[in-house]
Amino acid sequence: MSTENEWPLWEVFVRTKAGLDHKHCGSLHAADPKMALQMARDVYTRRQEGSSVWVVRSDQIVASDPGDKDMLFDPAEDKVYRHPTFYKLPDSVDHM
Amino acid sequence: MYTQAMDTLREEGGDKPPLRTAEEAQLQQRFDNRIDAGEFIEAKDWMPENYRKTLLRQISQHAHSEIVGMLPEGNWITRAPTLKRKAILLAKVQDEGGHGLYLYAAAETLGTSRDQMLDALHTGKAKYSSIFNYPTLTWADVGAIGWLVDGAAIMNQVPICRCSYAPYARAMVRICREESFHQRQGYDSLLVMMKEGTEAQRAMVQEAVNRWWWPCLMMFGPPDDQSPNSAQGMRWGIKRVSNDTLRQKFVDAAMQQAEVLGVSFPDPDLRWNEATGHWDYGKIDWSEFWRVVGGEGPCNRERLAARVKAWEEGKWVREAALAHARKSDLKEAA
Question: Tell me, what's the ipTM?
Answer without folding.
Answer: 0.84
